[in-house]
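Question:
When you can, review this sequence-structure pair and walk me through the tokens.
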Amino acid sequence: MKWVVAVWCVVALSCGARLPPLPSQGGPAWIELSSPHFKMWTDGSPEHGRELLQQMEHFRSIIYGVAFPDLPPGGVAFVVAFVDRREAQVYTAYMTDAFSDDAVRSPIDQPTIVLPAELDAGYVAQQIAFATAHSAMRHTPWWLTTGFGMYFKTIDLDVTRGTARVGTPDYRVRRQLEHHRVLPTAKLFTCTHKTCAGDSFNYASAWALYAFLLNNHPAELRKLEHQLESQKFDAAWQTSFGDLTLDQVDKQVLDWLGSGGIAVASYKLELQQWPTQQRSLGDADVHALRALLHFYRDRDDSRHETAAAIALDPSNVLARIVESDLDKQPPAIDVAKALVAAHPDQWLAWGLLYAALKQGPDADAAHAKMCELVLQNPELLLYEKCKSASQPTPAP
């Protein structure tokens, strides 16, 4: 028995998640690919990276067109596209191929998507939907983010014909709903990632509630989504749905599912070729990226990678911002000044300088420059604060 276990462990370790060597040590080259709404770091091929970027832009335009047709198209999300699942699973959860994180938890204050470049199209669309929900609706509860992602996971895009179908339930959702009664709305409203993320039936219930509201109460749902840009959920729900009780919602959802009234929407699209730019990344960038991704799960590994990045490039902004979050303090003033001298177009560098200076005319100037750059990207967490700060003070 011990021999069998030992063999199993060897097989598991040889086939498990692992990181390749750095580019300078024979590992794959890393590049940055930028499009209007995504900045992607990938160690896959440039050709496949551009294809993935085009696909993501198409999915994003569909999601905005369906869910937020009257909102501006937003800014830039950060994407990490690993060459395969084996590398991605160093950072993604067990049995999960990808994840997206909102700007609140991220050291870079920006929605972040992590996935393998070979991920199936539906899961790519789902991660984009999660990131879109985080940025377009600042105060989204678990059920709404999850239902939104599960619904737009169903995008069936035909690039050749320029058509898309949205709303066909995933087979896992159908199987769950065939065997279980949907979770009551009141209970679904209390779900958090920690309490509900482990049960696939809860995902099916979140899909059912979101799809039902989109099919049967589209105006109220759209109002709710708008209210969540500035209001907490309870107030936003009351403002949007008024006298509709949660018991009434439960009955209507069950009737809707039982009647087979699920609507699948079809769209004719005018797809465009999104412009992309490319630049090479070095070992210091790879260390800094690993530091960022380890930040969520292993602070010791994050510190190790941060130190390695800074040793190679003291002016690496990503490494310095992770270091600042780990230490819970800004860098020394001379370090921060060197950052903005090396990277005058990066808002994170100016943010570190502002934090290092703390107060005074130079701090005010750094803050103003930081906000000038932040206002170029509505996805950033500081966007609304900088936007408010830039408004002229009303005359008395």
